[in-house]
Amino acid sequence: MSRKPSPMDPFLARALSALEEMEGKPVQAGGKTLPLEVLVPSPQPRKRFENLEALAESIREKGVLQPLLVRPLGDGRYAIVAGERRYRAARMAGLSEVPVRVVELSEKEARLLALVENLQREDLNPYEETVGVLALLSEDLGKPVEEVVGLLHRMQNEKRGKATQNVLGSPEARRVEEVFKALGRMTWESFVQARLPLLSLPEDLKAALEEGAIPYTAALELKKVKDEASRKVLLEEARAGLSLRELRARVREVLRKEKAPRPWYREVGERLLRLDLEALPPERRALVERKLKELEELLG
Prior knowledge:
Keywords: DNA-binding, Plasmid. InterPro entries: Chromosome_partition/occlusion (IPR050336), ParB/RepB/Spo0J (IPR004437), ParB/Sulfiredoxin_sf (IPR036086), ParB_N (IPR003115). The protein is an alpha/beta fold. The chain folds into 4 domains: 10-106, Conserved hypothetical protein from pyrococcus furiosus pfu- 392566-001, ParB domain, CATH 3.90.1530; 126-197, no CATH class; 201-259, no CATH class; 264-299, no CATH class. It is 57% helix and 7% strand. It is built from 14 helices and 5 strands. Strands 1-5-3-4-2 form a 5-stranded mixed beta sheet. Helix 9 (203-210) runs antiparallel to helix 10 (216-223). The model is unreliable at 1-9 (pLDDT under 50).
C-alpha cells in the first residue's frame, strides 16, 4: 500500500506522474508482457522484501494483477522502475513472463521515480527510508550523499542559532524543504534529529533495524551504550519486546556504570601487564620483583 504525497512541486510531479496513472490499475487483456530474463532490477534503498512466499502463492493462483513499470535499455533488456517485489515473487512462482508497462524515461528520471515510489511504501523500515531520502536529495541536488548530509547539518545549526552563514536562504535549502514537503512524511528538521543518527549505528544495531527486529527509537537508545557486551544483552531484550520506557531505564543504568571510576587495583593490574621489567633500572627492578613476590604470597 502506498501513501499519497502532498501537492507536488515540479521536480517530483514528473517523477510520480507515471505511478499515479498506473496505481491500482489492473492488467489489461492483450497488454504487453516480457520474459523475466530480459528484466533488470534497479538499485534501490529497500533491502528486504516481506511476504514474498505469500505473494508468490497468490501469483500462482491469480497471476500478476498489476503490471511492472519498466524502461527500455536499448539492448533488448528492460530496467525495472517499479514492481521489483512482483518480479521476485513471479520468479518464485515459476512464471516465465510478466505483464509490463513500458515508459520512456531518462536514466535520471527512472532513478527519481524508483526512489519516490519506494519512499511511498508503508513497509519501508526507518533505515531504508533514511537512505532513500538521502539518495533522492542527492539525485535532485546533484551532490554526493556526504555533501547532502553536511548541508542538512548546517541548516540545523543555523536554525538553532549556532551559525550565521545564511544557509537557510540558499536555493539548495529551499529545494530540501520542497522535497520534504512533497514527500509529506516528516520535516527536514525531524529527519536531521531522528533519522541521520541512524547512519552511524554500530553494525549489530543496523542489522537489527534493517531486519525490522527493533524500532528506530530503540536503536537510537542502544547506540548510547558503547560496551559491546552490555549492548548485546540489551539488544536481545529489545528484540524480545522490551518496551522503550524500560529500555531507556536499562540504558541509563548501564551508562551510570560505564561512567563510574574504575577501581584503582584494576588500573594497577593493567599497568603491570604493560610493564617491561627488563627496561627498569637494576635497583628499581629488584624492588618491584620483591613486591610482586610478596603480593603473590599474599594472594596465594
